[in-house]
Specification:
8 strands, alpha+beta, 249 residues, two-stranded antiparallel sheet
Length: 249
Amino acid sequence: MQRTDRDRSGAGLRLGALLTALVVALACGLGPGRGGAERPADGSSGQRSSPPQGQQEDGTMTIGEFKSDLRGAVGLAEQYWAARFQENGQPFTPVQQVVAYQREGEVTCGGQPVPRNNALYCSAGDFIAYDVVWAVSAFRKIGDAFLYYLLGHEYAHGIQTRLGIRYSFTIQQELQADCMAGAYIGDSVRDGDLNLQDGDLDELRTGLAAVADDPGQPWFAEGSHGSAKQRTASFFDGYRRSLAACKLS
């Protein structure tokens, strides 16, 4: 998956810290974390998983490739949502920052430490944070399409906050964010802002399965994100039908 060259404006990344973290991550061997999903105590929205075991690496590995795809994913999300807000006559403010971290507690959200093997949107600080070791491991094992999904999903939580969307159960908010991430990617492909490459759709399905809840987790439990079937269905509903599928109003 590759963003086109039509607009590659910068996107509020802490690139110096990211580069340092990536160097350390590569030196540490990129060990995967435990599976399962987690919702931090402050109500921020996050997801945690380990990449699927035994899968072939897709060949996207270098620091430069990771940084380029990350920058492209965030910049494209900003471009996409700015256009949607403009279409509705609403002002748009991008998510303030995307932060890489390596250790639990290195980043806090609403006073709570952000755990390892995680990616989340923190509404208290209006930022996206992700464990760089976990993210690079997923990048290697699943592929660059997963990175666009991951950033799209977390950015969607920032949009939910801007729209004042609240749900009684975590799973409703998470599946809607999957749908919104699907719309962001699908619309960007249709608009010519993102190029699909061979295997990208399979990478997305693999990634969605990797971040799904463990079998048997109750849908109503706090922190539930949805089964692999639910998450895949929500994402591809948005991918095919755009935001009309996501029930934003």
